[in-house]
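Tutorial handout. Part one gives the primary structure; part two gives the three-dimensional structure as tokens.
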Amino acid sequence: MTKVLLVGNGAREHAIAEAVVNSGGELYSYMSAKNPAIAKLSKEFAVGDTCKPAEIAKWAASKKAAIAVIGPEAPLEAGVVDALEKSGIAVASPDKSAARLETDKAFTRGLMKKYKVPGTPIFKILNDIGEIDGFVDSTDMELVVKPAGLTGGKGVKIQGEHLKDKAEIKAYAKEVLSGKVGTINRVVIEEKLVGEEFTLQAFVSPDEILGMPMVQDHKRAYDGDVGPNTGGMGSYTGKGYVLPFLTKEDYEFGLKVMREAVRALRKETGSTYKGALYGQFIVTSNGPKLIEFNARFGDPEAMNVLTLFKGDFVDVLEAEFAGGLDGLDVSFADKATVCKYLVPIGYPEKPQKGAEITVDEAAVKKAGARLYYASVSEQGGKIVTSGSRAVAVIASGDSISAAEKIAERSTRFVKGPLEHRKDIGTEDLIQKRTAHMRAVRGVTL
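Part two.
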């Protein structure tokens, strides 16, 4: 039985933990807070700072972990993978250098431009506050402002949505460069892209990249795609690998971008990427463009794909580290999925924190759905919210609409001061996406 170390404690990590155990792995988990479901699945677990590489490596070595997988992005930037590998533990996640595809947007845009990776939008990297006014005033394009470093998925601001004019663009870019936003004092300003977004995740070994089904996430907090950006309020997949309003060509283009970016990374830095890679794309009137990479599974997108995964997940982790993915079953069930997050009232700007919630896991299962615990902790036998996303429910079906109905019914079995988007996966929303994509492509309705 393979001993697998998991670092992280959110819903994404709950899904990874479930996949490990379902594949016969013996799970050891290192969490920043006690996720009740991960704790239950684990042979042993520890609670501590997930950005302390030496402490994690020491604990993992004491448990004789054979392979590790990292869930969230912050431990990647902190060097946890490097410390584990130095201790002789294989890791199916990128090291600190390779993880720069996510942790440094300026590095990634520069890499893509240098190696002519397709799908790169028009962009400018700024390091000096004195450069901002001149650049913003010099262009007629609508713009997007991106902190180069990590911001927990909430740092990107878009003209016409979060920033109303050039004055607000300049002010926010200066705020980033002053060190008030993100982990790096650099800013990327890009052309605003209009279209439909999709997430493409892939299993990556030193020599192979194998794609998973397309997912569409929903960042906006409220029904109708309005409100502030969040870490993701829910997501869906269609039957097969391609969303119903996109094409096989969109999918193949995304996979090509990911392959070329990983190849460019190795040429530029000598770093070999391994583990899950996430590409967020947008299909525009000029074709698909890359919005960003994540050097890990997405959250909530991991739940969509892992609930459909048919292979041996532990074998995949080992092959991501050592090679051999092509010889494994990496297929997915031919079903659609819908995931909905329940979040504290007021999330993300003024969320209620420390509230007790109750979850009827048996009722969720009876309704035909699965449940994943996210940013909660178990305290004295009670489940308490932290202020971020709390619980996700996910259902599968023969269509997105069918899965949505099951997922929506299942939200009733999670009680407390929580709210969620009711429109994710509904027939009306899918029709809206389809009409929008036809308009973007210039197809007559």
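Part three, for discussion. The domain at 122-191 is CATH 3.30.1490.20 (Dna Ligase; domain 1). The chain has three domains: 3-93, 122-191, 196-430.
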